[in-house]
Amino acid sequence: MARKTKEEANETRSLLLDTAERVFNEKGVSRTSLNEIAEAAGLTRGAIYWHFKNKADLFDAMMERVTLPMEEMVIRSGDQSLNDPLTYIRTCAINVLVRTASDEQLQRVFDIFCHKCEFVADMLPMRERQLEGRNACLLQVEEGIRHAIDKGQLPATVNPRRAAIGMHAMIDGLIANWVLDPGYFPLAREAEGMVDIYLAGLGAKPLNLARTPTVCEPKKVAAGKRIAGAD
């Protein structure tokens, strides 16, 4: 009997997460109340509080059930026992992009996270949790890149921290733009090439731009003269 009760509890929890995912996607997180989620699931508000402390906790659980496997894979990037750390980092990055392109549930969750959530008020604690998770993954990727440098897979001129931040920014930006408009580019087909371009860039010789003016560099104007059309 106890086993059946546990199974029922797990089913209720999954129903609440499925419902929250659907309602958040339709209305946005800040405009969705726990009462609305409970009603949409055909349950009481008390059922939500049996499984989750608040909306932030519910949102966190919704995120974790689809992103945790990927985070666990990325975290292993810093494992010093890896014989080919650069290939492992490459595989992780491609896997995240390809899985996003093929998993509709993951697409919904990323769309909610990127475009339908404001980390304010009762969701503010969730912002801190997301930053902690991001920083933990960044640290491991940074260690993996440092390991790749030690093995000669990347030049010693590569800054591991900058490379890790750049990798995260690229993956995060690709996903955010693609879930906003899947017709923007074929994510699954382009994933490997995009990751390879970034990794190849890490090994490229730095450009010498010391004497090259930037696009936004203001023109020097002689005293008493004005640029035509400046008014």
What order do the helices and strands come in, and which of them pair?
Elements: H1 2-27, H2 34-41, H3 45-51, H4 55-75, H5 85-102, H6 104-115, H7 124-150, H8 160-180, H9 187-202
Helix pairs in contact: 1-2, 1-4, 1-6, 4-6, 4-7, 5-6, 5-8, 5-9, 6-8, 7-8, 8-9
Could you explain the architecture of this structure?
With 231 residues, the protein is mainly α. It is 68% helix and 0% strand. The longest helix has 27 residues, at 124-150.
The CATH superfamily of the largest domain is known as Tetracycline Repressor, domain 2
CATH class of the largest domain: Mainly Alpha
Low-confidence parts:
227-231
Total E-strand runs:
0
Beta-strand proportion: under 5%
Helix content: 55-70%
Q: How far apart are the termini?
A: 82 Å
What is the fold-level CATH name, i.e. the topology of the largest domain?
Tetracycline Repressor, domain 2
Cα Rg:
23 Å
Number of domains: 2
Average of pLDDT? 86
User: Given the helix and strand composition, which structural class is it?
Assistant: mainly alpha
Our count of helices gives 9
Q: Major sheet: size, sense and barrel closure?
A: none
CATH architecture of the largest domain: Orthogonal Bundle
